[in-house]
Amino acid sequence: MTPPDATTADAPHHDARFHATSYLKFLRLAFRLATEGSWLFYAWMFVLTCIALVGTHAWAVQVRDGMAVTAMTDHVSWGLYIANFTFIVGLAAGGVMMVIPAYIYHDRDMHDTVIIGELLAIASIVMCLLFVVVDLGRPDRFWHILPFVGKFNWPISMLTWDVIVLNGYLLLNLHICGYLLYKRFLGEKPDKRWYVPFVFLSIAWAISIHTVTAFLYCGLGGRPFWNTALLAPRFLTSAFVAGPAFIVVVLQIIRRMTKMKIGEGSIRTLVGIMRITILINLVMLISELFTEFYTGGSHATAAHYLYFGEHGLNALQPWIWTSTIAIVVAAVLLMRPKIHLHMKTLDVACVLVFVGIWIEKGMGLIIPGFIPSTLHEWVEYIPSAIEWKVSAGIWAAGLIVYTLLLKVAIPIFTGQTGALQGKNK
Amino acid sequence: MSDNKKESCGSGCGCHNGAPDESLFNRRNVLKAAGATLGVAAFAKAMAPITEWKETTSVDEFLQTHYRELSNDQLDEVIARLEEETKKDYGADVTITDHRPQMGVKFGYALNLSICIGCRRCAEACHHENNHDRATSNSYIRVLEMTKGSMDMEKGNVHYDHPVPHPDKFYMPVQCQQCDNPPCVDVCPVEATWKEEDGIVVVDYNWCIGCRYCEAACPYHARRFNWKKPVVPKNEINPNQSYLSNRIRPQGVMEKCTFCLHRTREGRMPACLEACPTGARVFGNLLDPHSEIRKVIDTKRVFVLKEELGTRPSFFYFFDE
Ligand code: SF4
Ligand code: SF4
What we know:
Number of strands of chain A: 0
Largest sheet of chain A: none
Structural class of chain B: alpha+beta
Radius of gyration of chain B: 28 Å
Helix content of chain B: 25-40%
Distance between the termini of chain A: 11 Å
Shape of chain B: elongated
Distance between the termini of chain B: 81 Å
Largest interface: A-B, 78 and 76 residues
Largest sheet of chain B: 4 strands, mixed
Radius of gyration of chain A: 23 Å
Strand order of the largest sheet of chain B: 10-2-12-11
Number of helices of chain B: 9
Oligomer: heterodimer
Bound molecules: iron/sulfur cluster
């Protein structure tokens, strides 16, 4: 494979007409890359599409019949949707753990694979936005939240901040990935001025999306379980474990299924990051549990319910213990020396981390924030079938987006499209 | 991601060694077209329930602007439309008025815990006055049964069902505290809820997007969401309605206690106060030094709930000596 970067030193100047035709060709190629593939690819897309359709139908029913079809109540007013949303914001932010080594520490291997993390960010934000939309009681009024057309309660509401940072992050990553791919398609060297500043901006931005999402919850004085300064840092560390875990698995799949060279360095670096972040995450968890259980009081009530049940109610207990055990076991597994050479162990650790953090951010954080209610009523929440269907549908949609993005990006990146124009063909 | 040795480059791009098969009707393209058609059809089928819902939401309603940006003419049109819709959906003739706050008035509420007997008549009156969904017997008021000797709500219970008053208990009704520093208003992303000059926190039911962030933010569990369309029998509907208070709420939006602004802005008392058999409730204008509420605040030892949160409620509790 010839790295397209290595062609000419100075990119030639093109006029708008050149771009008009070659961009069209680029889009045509992208369309072809996205729709052609092996039967395995078609089968995968077929299954995902079916799941997405089931989710779509469930959502349509929910819009027609009202949110009463969910298991949410006035007591637990946010459920599975916002839980997933919170976790996936972390997944989007986690992609940055590839960008930092690639661009700040000039890790060569990572530089070749960083696009995989950036595309994950795009797919994740799409999922985040979908999860917000399905959580609205009146999705037809979504335009009220648009700046200028609607009424944008900025800077007071944290939700408007979240809208800004999420969409900003989406645009940033769309620009970076789109620009790099188009340049590779043209067989030209990308102009650093057009993407490096955006890459650095996206690093800061990745941290902001998860911080702002944490502020959504910890800014609420009436919810003692969330009202802790440790919430945002915990969000970040858990994101920086779950994100790399997902990417490590994706890298291995790509290595097996495509001709893309995945340097061992990428996986080694990601594992190195996970080893540290998972420990920091555990330290923070222990500090929080200590303050809760040693002191007692209202902050401890929800935590007690979460871990041990209360008033004979214990719906969350199996979840949180599964999560805790998964994370602790994963931490131990990750400590295995030279783990990047033991792919089985690594895969198990990655799956455990992913599931563990997903529960921790959902059933372990959003739901217990509502139990007991602010007037200390004990109402439990167990997601309804509709909520599971809609959530699965959005995950499937996200995977469709991610698969298609990779499907287009990898051949262009590795220069095997057979359509590369110009000098390095 | 194929590795079809026969013809493709291995990237799964279908390029066939750089010489793409451009024939429009090759097997793959036909299959793709069939797949896409099936996909679109399946999507339309999956989305079908939405069309049934759309019938109930008109274009006018979709495009309606925020209450505070409606001109007088527009507001008249909107109100006429809402009255017509109530007639169509519920079969009832109702009058919807737009009650505005009066100058020099700031409403306050006080509740005497020594004489409240926990009969929940206030909650019931609220339920009828505000046209709440009958099946859920919704109400803006929750009455906590508390153990004597403790103000700890953790030891309170709203689901008591025995004759009242119980000798070892006292009762604490909780409703919207109309906070002066309302967290619910701060968090709303679309300004669908705000505090009016007379101290009442209201919701524009036609602007709320139903995100329920305000419900998570309220420390007093004062907000209610319309998880489905409220069901009220035609003959039980309270026809005296106001735009910002007791008109029947649409599905998927937030609502809350408004101190019965459709009554109190006309100089009447809230429905919960009128229903209270013991006279535990005191309502009035905090800015009027001769009002009964001021007398209570000046002479009794009053307190507010969760003072440490800085919400500054306009709802006060007190005990007789
Ligand atoms: S009691 Fe709750 S709903 Fe009422 S003003 Fe305060 S925060 Fe808002
Ligand atoms: S539910 Fe409605 S009133 Fe409450 S925060 Fe959301 S948009 Fe605002």
